[in-house]
Design a protein that fits this description.
This protein is mainly beta. It has strands at residues 6-9, 12-13, 20-21, 36-42, 47-53, 58-64, 66-72, 84-90, 95-99, 104-109, 114-120, 129-131. The chain is built from no helices and 12 strands.
């Protein structure tokens, strides 16, 4: 696991008329405050990579579909510098992925219809995010698909 990354098992409450799927509670250790929440769709086999936020903490949930997340740590003073972490999140593997500031991340749609919810601790600010191409040689990972 990458230092500062948290994977939290989430509760699904089955219901005769439809399930209730928890996303986040303010009393959980990974809750850092609320800035905004948004949904993002990703098409099957599409890759959205690489990004890192300078200040923002992300809390990602996948209520529909199946999405692979890859995280790369190049922080100078991190215990996990140079390491990659990969996880697939879906309704069947329902968890929340918390990504701290200053680690690179990307994701790929694996299902036919893929939706993620991101709950952040600060509002989006284009000045605090960095992006590089999905095939950038500085990150030792090759996306398949």
């Amino acid at each position: 696991m990458i230092e500062g990354v948290i994977l939290t098992k989430l509760k699904t409450i089955p219901g005769e008329l439809g399930d209730v799927m928890h996303a986040m509670k303010s009393n959980e250790p990974s809750f850092r405050g609320f800035g905004e929440a948004y949904f993002s769709f990703i098409k099957k086999d599409a890759v959205k990579a690489w990004k890192r936020h300078k200040k923002m903490t992300l809390n990602i949930v996948v209520p529909c579909g199946k999405i692979k997340f890859v995280i790369y740590d190049d922080r100078k003073n991190s215990k996990t510098k140079g390491e990659l972490y990969e996880v697939v999140i879906s309704k069947d593997n329902y968890q929340r992925l918390t990504i701290p500031p200053m680690v690179w991340f990307g994701f790929q749609g694996l299902g036919d219809e893929n939706l993620l919810l991101n709950i952040t601790d600060i509002q989006h600010d284009p000045a605090e995010v960095e992006s590089i191409e999905s095939h950038d040689s500085n990150i030792p990972y090759t996306w398949r698909g």
